Amino acid sequence: MSVTTEGLSGFAIGLVEIVVFVGYLAGFWKLLNVITSGFDDHEEIFVHGNWAYLVQRLGITAGQATGMLSSMGLHEPNRWSDVGLLALSGAWVALLLLAVHPVIDRIVGGEVRRPDDARAYELSAGLVKAAFYVAFGFVVNGSLSGSAPDWPTALAATAVFTLLGGALLVGCYFLVDLVNPFPMRAGVREGRLACALEAAGSLVALGLVMRNAIAGDFVGWGPALAGFAATAVAGLAVLYATRWLVDRLVLTHSTMRQVHEADQVPAAALLAAFLPLAALPVTAVVGTVL
């Protein structure tokens, strides 16, 4: 295999993109340290063993990484401007995550403090918040994918579908509570990890589906909005159907209601794993049709 000048240039650009990507993750972690001045991160994570805080922080960092991934790689051979686009997308993703941080805190509830008697309660809230960040990262990833006829349209489409995707995730969290015979949101605030796992699995699964629904070239507001709405309905339907099937066919000696009432974490973890797995074929179909 011969090594060309073009190939070396592309390899160099790829290496720089990797450095920028990792640099953003480290820089975002440091920025969060500065913003959360009431916490000493080293003390909370390594000394006190604050799992709730660690899970939440890892979730928002994973959201940053997921959101930036669509801007990785060479969109055209040997184009150094791709590095600049990656840097801009990294700043945009970080800004969005900081903007939704107080919204997610308010919706989920439960401040993550130093571990004490309320440690389990805080871990359940931290887990759901982490899932929100990861799912939102998928939404942002999709909104930054594809092309548009011009820059104003691209910016408008990115903003609109990021907002719609975020609103759908919030709606999903409330819908999980409505369709469940057990009060899920109250369970999360009470520290029930079984409730937190089901909610987290639902959010990540829907984020996967919406990523493929939003991604792609912009072909007009009508088709884009119609495709988004159809995918939202299909995604939520698949999540509910998956839960129903697990309840009827997989959990042979108990029901999901009993799982949550007894806070049976392994059974809830099983459902939490099934939900993203069921979302994968939906993403494949969406990616082919839309």
Inertia-based shape: globular
Question: Structural class from helices and strands?
Answer: mainly alpha
What's the overall average pLDDT, rounded? 85
Helix content: over 70%
Order of helices and strands: HHHHHHHHHHH
Beta-strand residue fraction: under 5%
Give the domain tally: 1
Number of strands: 0
Number of helices: 11
Taking Cα atoms only, what radius of gyration do you get, to the nearest Å? 20 Å
Question: Sheet with the most strands?
Answer: none
Ranges where pLDDT stays below 50 over 5 or more residues in a row are 112-120
Task: State the distance separating the first and last CA atoms.
Answer: 38 Å
How are the secondary structure elements laid out?
Layout: H1 5-35, H2 41-47, H3 51-68, H4 81-108, H5 119-143, H6 151-179, H7 184-190, H8 193-214, H9 221-250, H10 256-261, H11 265-289
Helix pairs in contact: 1-3, 1-4, 3-4, 3-5, 4-5, 5-6, 5-8, 6-8, 6-9, 7-8, 8-9, 8-11, 9-11
